[in-house]
Amino acid sequence: MAERQRKRPKRTPPDASATPAFVVGEDRYKALVEQLPVGVYRTTLDGMIIEANSALVRMLGYKRPQTLFNCNVKDFYVRGEDRSRLIEKLSSQPISFQEFEIRRADGRRFWVRDYCRGVKGPDGSIHHLDGILVDITERKTTDRKLKLTLRKLRLTNEKYENLSLTDHLTDLHNRRGFFTFGLQQMKIAKRLKEDNYLLFLDIDNLKEVNDAHGHAVGDQLLQGVATILKNTLRESDVIGRIGGDEFAVLAMRSKGLGERALLARIEEGVQRFRLKKFGHLRLSVSMGLVRVDPQKYQQLDDFLAHADFLMYQQKRSKEREGKHP
């Protein structure tokens, strides 16, 4: 039986007048470039603009591409060296990523990130540059604001650190705090026409304690003496740790308790503390006390130096008499 031949369907030739479903070739590429939200360009090596999409035309502040083609790309750079650096990079590498500032037609500046490729000819030299420009002004502005905020924060922290008025080990005023509040105390005393007294106190043998038993024990002694001063003196008195083992007190004269009695109470408090906590240590304090007349113009430093001198005399006297515990 003869084998039946199957008939193949005839193919209908395409209608040349019909509109194609997709743009093809170069037209399709140009349509795609026109739809991109970033600037696309092609320039000669010397900066003449050969091609530019609509996004780039708008980015640079122009209305028509023809106007842009009459410009040289070098005119848009805020810093000419950015263009020179780009060319230099492309001479040794095929692609360059670079951020720089450019100008719009109206002179306004903005930041871009340039993704550029050097297209070389048969002779190996760059014939033209193809690239994409992305507007990164918003990101740069945010970065700049962040850097400014961080700088202000750092300066503020430094300011507060410098203006810190508290000694963190003893919780007393530090030297800056003592002078700050001490001057206020003197102004109050002057207004009330009351005398102050200034006490300078130094812990004897603290270096020996640190050398023999460590700074942790020395810190406990400093904290103990600070507690004694706070418990012995009034809350309104200005107490400060003004040096390593040096303390100062500025207080208004009290009618109930004389200055000599106050010195005795401090010495007794130190010895009770030594016997209770560190009976095996040699611990004592030397003190100097001066009267401060706030009606007389004199720097607090001068009173402090005088009290320091009296304290030093007492310390030397105790050493000669062997009265250190």
Please, could you describe this protein's structure?
With 325 residues, the protein is α+β, with helices and mostly antiparallel strands. The protein folds into two domains: 25-138, Beta-Lactamase (2-Layer Sandwich), CATH 3.30.450.20; 175-321, Alpha-Beta Plaits. Helix content is 44%, strand content 22%. The chain contains ten helices and nine strands. The chain has helices spanning 25-35, 54-59, 65-69, 80-90, 137-162, 175-192, 206-213, 215-232, 259-277, 300-321; strands at 39-44, 49-52, 95-103, 109-120, 126-135, 196-204, 238-241, 246-252, 284-292. A five-stranded antiparallel β-sheet has the order 2-1-5-4-3, with helices on both faces. Strands 7-8-6-9 form a four-stranded antiparallel β-sheet, sandwiched between helices. A hairpin with a 5-residue loop joins strand 4 (109-120) and strand 5. Helix 7 (206-213) runs antiparallel to helix 8 (215-232) and helix 8 runs antiparallel to helix 9 (259-277). The longest helix has 26 residues, at 137-162. It is elongated, with a radius of gyration of 42 Å. The termini are far apart.
